[in-house]
Amino acid sequence: MTLLDERPITDAMLHAFVDGQLDDALMTKVEAYLDKHPERIADLQTWTQQNTAIQKLYTYRDVPPRIAKLPE
């Protein structure tokens, strides 16, 4: 077992997941967490909607954000 395996999933990690900011290992760990905790998907959907609303307000951004595909 590695340190990565022992790290709990935090809200910060979930936000990074939504923003597409996790490396492949953490992305896989968060996906496994969401499989076991589907009630958290509603939070991720809300954050994704908030990101979309913010992007519409600030369309001048040069770099499009990377958005993770949420499980359904």
Name the helix and strand elements from N-terminus to C-terminus, one letter apiece: HHHH
Total beta strands: 0
Figure out the total of helices: 4
Q: What is the mean predicted local confidence, pLDDT? A: 83
Sheet of most strands: none
Shape: globular
Helix content: 55-70%
Structural class call reads: mainly alpha
Gyration radius, in Å: 13 Å
Unreliable stretches: none
Give the termini distance in whole angstroms: 30 Å
Portion of residues in beta strands equals under 5%
Main attributes?
mainly alpha; 72 residues
Descriptive account of the structure:
- There is one protein chain.
- The chain is mostly helical and 72 residues long.
- It has a domain at 11-56.
- Helices cover 58% and strands 0% of the residues.
- The protein has four helices and no strands.
- The protein has helices at 3-6, 11-18, 24-36, 41-57.
- 6% of the residues are buried.
List the helices and strands and how they pair.
Blueprint lengths: L2 H4 L4 H8 L5 H13 L4 H17 L15
